[in-house]
Amino acid sequence: MTRSEKHRATMTTAGLNLIAQAMSIYDSDLQLVVCNQRFQEMFALPGPLITPGARFDETIRHIATSGEYGPVDDIEGFVKQRVDQALDFVPHYLERERANGQVISIEGAPLPQGGWVTVYTDITRTKRIEQLLRARSEEMSDQLIVHTEELSATNRKLAATITALEEAKRQLTEMEARTRLTTEMMPAHIAHVDAEGYYTYTNRRLSSVFPSRPSEILGTHIAEALGAAAYDKIAPHLLAAYQGENPVFEFTEDHDSRRIRVAFTPDNTGGVFILSMDVTEETQTRVALQQARRREMAAQMTSGLAHDFSNLLTIILGMQGKLAKSDLAPEAADLVQATLSAARRGGRLLNRIAEMTGHRSLRPRATDLHALLQELKLLATPSLPQGMGLSIVDHTPDVRLLLDPGKLQDALLNLILNARDACGSQGQITVSAHVVGQTWLEVSVTDSGPGFSKTALEKALNPFFTTKGGEGSGLGLPMVYDMAKSTGGDMRIGNTVSGASVTLRIPYRLAPDAAGGLALLVEDSEELRATFRDMLIDLGYAVVEATSVDEACALAADIDGISLVLSDIKLQGSATGIDLADRLQGSRLPCILMTSLPTSNPLFRTALKRCPVLQKPFTTHQLSALIKSEPAA
After folding, report:
1. Which of 148, 238, 259, 354 sits at a 20 to 30 Å CA gap from 199?
2. To which H or E segment does residue 47 belong?
3. Which residue, 431, 403, 404, 405, is CA-closest to 417?
4. By the 8 A CB rule, do 52 and 192 touch?
5. Residues 6+ apart with CB under 8 A from 370
6. Quick one: pLDDT band at residue 187, thresholds 50, 70, 90?
7. Sequence-distant (≥ 6) Cβ neighbours of residue 198 within 8 angstroms
């Protein structure tokens, strides 16, 4: 709760304590929201029963046990009857005489969001006056007139109090509605569980973080709401929160491998506030950025060494070339040729190092994965021995994905050739692809060879480690691993019952649909905006336009059916197109950024980790290459 909210809550309680009547407000689960001091005093309630969250049934049980309702034979039956009446949420008014002779009126009114406001008024004096009026109706004495005036004054005060209560109820209802609207608009699940783990509040966004779970979870235990697998992962942290700690942690849920971040904050009543959000895309971006930084560091460390070794190899090749032209003995000529072969192999190795450590921009575009896998089979089959089979098992949906087809195909070819070398002259290689939830594209290459050795499982991703002796460079798997990491994904190696397995996991990103869709164009230059608008129209889009991030976000929230966002990186105001991509990530709208910045600019590299980037100037055909399944010019 913010300082201003605490201040408003304190003022509300202070205001309620000024009211002469006793008052209580219970929520839709019949748990106490707030009450005033008169309520506690009237029924002599202990501290726990006037604390927010106290249960209505416990309060009724306490009052009945204290003799408030006179002799009650079946306390539990009486409590159940009162609870059932309360859950009907029907407005009511009644008057009753208490065991101490006091007469009170009880007026209950339901709240729009569920729950009750109840006002208890001491009408003992009013009732006595009414009795006096009935007993002495024949004699209109001065005393009766005085009492009549007192009654009128009392009625006027009561009317004023009721007006104040209605205004307090209206403000409370408005505040509650505003708070709920704010929390429900947040791209996160906000909730509270009591000391026993039952939800007492939720902004009904659990399903946006855990798509397989329900949103209506009030009164449900957290283990039931999350499911056994997810609950087992958060249970130790929840226990720590119950013990007064403030844990913040991340875990990968099992349903579709989303990355979830959770924060637990204990309250002062034994419960815990919960904030959880889906950080899958953030994690993918973080992994890609970390890999880029590692590559840059490796490039800095190896560039000088590579330069010096390249010069040395050039000298060796030159000297050995001269020796080869000399009149040498046969055995010396063989040594010269072996030296030349080794030097050339060293040159190729330097080129592989340069490829691995140099800055290699991803070039994602709309890709038909079915066609890519079939083409992979055509490319790989001629390089396989006659007794070796290659199968493609494609379980991916019929959609186009945003990925770099060249790098993915190169990586899979590399894995297939590694599997071929492991199997020898015969065996079976299988490439299988499927989607995990709506989060990952997973492609596995398995073979029927001997599998990875224990040492290989530990070191296969280390550069220069090889099991092929002098025939291998030890850079094949590390380069595939680097490709997966640079997209924000990962790579796993292991053994199956029949051989080795390498699994690539890269972010699952749908390509924009160009078939008569609606595009949001964000560009602050009027001239350029007109040019890009014409390009999008030529590609079959209807176009809405914005000049800033705030304007674009407002349009995206108000307009349904947007299928593509095309935005400049630098825009009006301090926010950039990168900020726009971040703010729209919850809506999963396909986003393409464009810029005139050089590829070495840090802003360009940051943008490339978020989504595809087009460098200005570009043509309609180049824009189409990101949207349609066709190569760029």
Report:
1. 259
2. none
3. 431
4. no
5. 394, 396, 398
6. low
7. 219, 220, 221, 222
- As beta bridge partners, residue 593 has 567, 613
- pLDDT at residue 472, as a whole number: 47
Report the candidate in 541, 523, 519 with the shortest Cα–Cα distance to residue 531: 523
Q: Give residue 633's pLDDT band: very low, low, confident or very high (50, 70, 90).
A: very low
Contact 564, 586 (CB under 8 A): no
Query: CB-based burial of residue 243 (10 Å sphere; 0-12 exposed, 13-18 middle, 19+ buried)?
Result: exposed
**pLDDT classification of 286: cutoffs 50, 70, 90:** low
The whole-angstrom separation of Cα 408 and Cα 412 is: 6
Number of H helices, E strands in the chain: 20, 22
What per-residue confidence (pLDDT) applies to 497? 85
Whether residue 28 is predicted with pLDDT greater than 50 in this model: the reply is yes
Q: How many residues does the chain have?
A: 633
Residue 392 pairs in a beta bridge with 431
The number of beta carbons lying within 10 Å of the beta carbon of residue 29 is 17
Name residues whose C-beta falls within 8 Å of residue 149's C-beta, 6 or more positions apart in sequence: none
DSSP letters, 447-491, are ESS----HHHHHHTTSTT--SSGGG--S-HHHHHHHHHHHTT-EE
CA dist list (Å): 495 to 62, 448, 462: 65, 10, 18
What is the spatial distance between Cα 16 and Cα 39, in angstroms, rounded to a whole number?
A: 10
Dist CA 332 CA 328 (whole Å)? 6
Query: Could you give phi then psi for residue 117, rounded to 5 degrees?
Result: -115, 125
Q: Are 349 and 407 in contact (CB under 8 A)?
A: no
DSSP 200: E
Say if residues 566 and 594 touch (Cβ distance below 8 Å): yes
For the residues 31-36, what does the mean pLDDT come to?
A: 87
Identify any residues that bridge with 590 across adjacent strands, giving them in sequence order: none
Amino acid sitting at position 547: T
Q: Using H for helix, E for strand and C for coil, what is the string for 124-175?
A: HHHHHHHHHHHHCCCCCCHHHHHHHHHHHHHHHHHHHHHHHHHHHHHHHHHH
- Local structure of residue 512 (DSSP, 8 states): P
> Helix or strand or coil: residue 612?
coil
E-strand ranges in 189-310 read 189-193, 199-202, 248-252, 259-266, 272-278
**Is residue 80 scored above 60 in pLDDT?**
yes
Residues 61-88: what's their mean pLDDT? 87
Closest by alpha carbon to 476, among 356, 372, 390?
356
Rounded to whole angstroms, the maximal C-alpha distance in the chain is 151
Of 412, 452, 418, 419, nearest in space to 433 by CA: 412
Looking at residue 535, the DSSP 8-state letter turns out to be H
* Portion of the chain with pLDDT greater than 70, in percent: 70
Residue 361 token pair: 């921009």
Asked if residues 288 and 488 have their Cβ atoms less than 8 Å apart, the reply is yes
CA atoms within a 13 Å half-sphere pointing along the CA-CB vector of 584: 30
DSSP bridge pairs for 345: none
Q: Which amino acid is at 68?
A: E
Query: What sign does the dihedral 9-10-14-17 (CA atoms) show?
Result: positive
Q: What is the pTM of this model?
A: 0.41
- How do strand 365-368 and strand 400-403 relate by DSSP bridges? antiparallel
